[in-house]
Amino acid sequence: MIFPEEYKYVGVTKVHPDDAHEEPVYFLSRYIIVEQLMGAEQGYSIFQIEHTGEELLRKVTNVKLIASGKQVIRYGKELNIKDRRLLIEKALELCKGDVNTVIFTGFDKHVTFVHDPDISEIIDIEIVDVVPPEPSWLSLMVRKLEASGIFGDMSIRFKENTKDLRQLEGERTVFPCSSSGLDGKCLDSDIITEDGSLLVGCEISKKIFESRFPGLKYEFINICPYRSDIYTPQGPFVTRCCLSERSGLATINGIKGAVVHWGASEFQVALAIRELVEQIRKEKGEGK
Asked: Helix (H, G, I), strand (E, B), or coil: what is residue 87?
């Protein structure tokens, strides 16, 4: 797949390279899109170029045809051309028959293209969390960040892997916090006096329960992402933990992911995800 890293590396012209031996190009140019008439319709050819020199405008030394004619179409709507995943997915929809290249126009009128789109370029990241509240806090943060475009250059796609704690509600169930709105008792607001409770929480919840209610017998369901009894990640993931020292890149059940603290900011969540993706791509040999 060819996908220029920055739209500024793509130039658009009506002059074919064969007719422009002496025409210089801007020093950042790596690809040239040539607009041309094909009968009564607009057609395109895309070339990869090399140039030499030290000036802003440089002499072209090599030209390689990437795609032309019926292989190239131009998407008719403007969109966010800095969202790599969006462009790859859209190009995959449009590359049918002879078409293997799609030209896209951004909201700022700049252009880029995708040649031979490859779905394997997109990395799926699971958002591992619990509900309620719904959406989960982590899902809400990630989706807000995604909508902002902060992950646009990373070719990633998110999917929820959340577990609904309402399935564990009951008269004998004890949850960590009353703010969840779950039906049951909570460590921060109720007093437990009898054996037989079902504690749903993590190691911290367990320590608090035993500290507040010493000697009581109870069952325990661990929902800590590191040792969860109810869910595990199925692929690269981002999750959260109440212990700040566990924040950072992690491996759970052989799967790489990123862990953020329950009180992490949007910036910290974004940074953790970017570090995870960079690590995955580095291990895949992509260098990014």
From this structure: helix
- Close Cβ partners of 17 (under 8 Å, ≥ 6 residues apart): 32, 34, 47, 49, 60, 63
Model pTM? 0.86
Amino acid (1-letter code) at residue 127: I
HSE value, Cβ hemisphere, 13 Å, CA-based, for 23:
13
Length, in residues, of the chain: 288
- Say which amino acid occupies 147: A
CA quadruple 208, 214, 217, 223: dihedral, nearest 10 = 10
Q: Is 201 in contact with 176 (CB distance < 8 Å)? A: yes
What is the residue whose two structure tokens read 């990869």? 48
Query: In this predicted model, what pLDDT tens digit does every residue of 28-80 receive, in sequence order?
Result: 889 999 998 766 677 999 999 999 999 999 888 999 999 999 999 999 999 99
Give me the residue label for tokens 């992402």. 225
Please write the tens of the pLDDT for every residue from 83-99: 999 999 999 999 999 99
Give 197's contacts (C-beta < 8 A, 6+ positions apart): 172, 173, 174, 185, 209, 216, 218, 219
For residue 218, give the nearest of 198, 245, 191, 238 by alpha carbon: 198
